[in-house]
């Protein structure tokens, strides 16, 4: 399983070291000390399996899982790692949305077998799942509708103008963060949300909406991570759109 990366989330330093020592010979890994730190890492990097402790300060595993699911931050399997071990706990964690539950103390053989199984299931998922992931980036019906009345070159120009304006807006948001004028960010996000919605940038539109609501609620705790997410989503959209336009040109 080359190039597979595991995220270990546990507030206990000894527990993290144990998990790191178990998986380090088979996989790359990063570690986080709580759910909030884990979410920040997930927004910036790709992980193929997440090992999530339940009881942690700052943000517990259940809350982190809920945010990951609500914001669609990753489709990687998330395994609950906890000292809870009876059948009721097992059923609760699965019903909460975890893909598996492993009780502490963790048995190395059991953990490695579980990771391998989840990676295998992920790699063998139907191709329609992959299509769903890419369709979440761009609402292709918008592109098809534009193609009824415009040439591909004209459409490309429209999207290039959108990309350029989006980059400027995101740069302005970063400046407002730097000077701590958080209340002025909402206006920039409102413009970006309208434009991304009009042109079918679905994931960008979604994350702009989440960021905008946080500004309205004066929730500035994760403002740098929210900014980085917008930047990342715009880059993903630009790359995906380029591939789509190239595909249509070759048809």
UniProtKB/TrEMBL annotation:
Ranges where the Response regulatory domain occurs: 5-119
Modified residues (Phosphohistidine): 190
Keywords: Phosphoprotein
Gene3D superfamilies named among the record's database cross-references: 3.40.50.2300, HPT domain
Highest taxon, organism lineage: Bacteria
Organism of origin: Echinicola arenosa
Positions carrying 4-aspartylphosphate: 53
Classification via SMART domains: REC
Name listed for the protein in its UniProt record: Response regulator
CDD domains hit by this protein: REC_hyHK_CKI1_RcsC-like
PANTHER family per record: PEROXIDE STRESS-ACTIVATED HISTIDINE KINASE MAK1-RELATED (PTHR43719:SF28), TWO-COMPONENT HISTIDINE KINASE (PTHR43719)
Protein's UniProt keywords contain Phosphoprotein: yes
Cell division in keyword set: no
């Amino acid at each position: 399983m080359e190039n597979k990366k595991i995220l270990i989330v546990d507030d206990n330093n000894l527990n993290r070291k144990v998990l790191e020592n178990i998986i380090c010979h088979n996989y790359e890994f990063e570690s986080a000390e709580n759910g909030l730190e884990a979410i920040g890492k997930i927004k910036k990097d790709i992980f193929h399996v997440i090992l999530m402790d339940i009881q942690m300060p700052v943000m517990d595993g259940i809350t982190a899982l809920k945010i990951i699911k609500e914001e669609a931050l990753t489709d990687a399997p998330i395994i609950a790692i906890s000292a809870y071990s009876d059948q009721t706990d097992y059923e609760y964690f699965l019903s909460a949305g975890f893909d598996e539950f492993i009780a502490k103390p963790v048995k190395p053989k059991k953990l490695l077998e579980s990771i391998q199984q989840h990676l295998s299931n992920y790699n063998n998922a139907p191709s329609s799942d992959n299509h769903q992931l890419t369709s979440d980036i761009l609402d292709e019906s918008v592109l098809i509708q534009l193609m009824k009345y415009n040439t591909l070159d004209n459409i490309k120009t429209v999207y290039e103008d959108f990309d350029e304006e989006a980059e400027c807006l995101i740069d302005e948001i970063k400046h407002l963060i730097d000077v701590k004028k958080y209340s002025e960010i909402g206006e920039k996000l409102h413009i970006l949300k309208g434009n991304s919605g009009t042109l079918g940038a679905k994931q960008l539109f979604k994350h702009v909406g989440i960021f905008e609501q946080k500004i309205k609620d004066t929730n500035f705790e994760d403002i740098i991570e929210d900014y980085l997410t917008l930047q990342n989503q715009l880059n993903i959209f630009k790359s995906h759109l380029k591939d789509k336009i190239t595909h249509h040109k070759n048809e």
